[in-house]
Specification:
Elements lengths: L2 E5 L5 H6 L13 H10 L4 E8 L2 E10 L9 E8 L8 H15 L4 E6 L7 H6 L3 E7 L2 E7 L4
């Protein structure tokens, strides 16, 4: 399985737009049409990418990269979703590893994300990858931090 992160272009935007999470997961991640609109509106800080596995668009990832962020947290994983047909195949972890390489190349020492708690949430996925809850909530979402410093 060769996973890559591709820029969103006229050639793949329709594929990203059409991706859907599995039934019951809709409450845990914004839709891709909404995320693409947000990426456009916040294009100075958004880093949207198509997750491509073996030449096929299988998911969507978006980072916030904002060194001017007033809360002192310039790097956030805003979105990570995989199409229902491509979940549980290692694509999410592989895509996140590629995003982490990019962040480390920018000098990032930590990455934040948040998730909606509840049955079927991505909490276990993020905890397995090393994210640690900070004890904070952001609009009822659990905020977590991943240490990116060299081990």
């Amino acid at each position: 399985m060769a996973v890559e992160l591709h820029e969103i272009t006229e050639d793949n935007v329709g594929d990203v737009f059409d991706l859907k999470v599995a039934p019951g997961q809709e409450e845990f991640v914004s839709t891709n049409p909404w995320s693409l609109a947000q990426a456009y509106a916040e294009r100075d800080i958004a880093w949207p990418r198509a997750i491509v596995a073996d030449g096929e668009v299988v998911g969507f990832l978006m980072l916030e990269i904002d060194p001017e962020e007033e809360n002192g947290r310039p790097y956030w994983l805003w979105r990570l979703m995989l199409d229902a047909a491509h979940q549980r195949q290692g694509h999410g972890g592989a895509a996140l590893a590629l995003a982490l390489e990019h962040l480390r190349s920018l000098g990032a020492e930590e990455l934040f994300t948040s998730w909606v708690p509840g049955e079927g949430s991505p909490e276990g996925f993020y905890l397995r990858l090393g994210f640690v809850p900070t004890g904070e909530l952001d609009d009822d979402e659990i905020v977590a931090r991943l240490d990116l410093s060299p081990t």
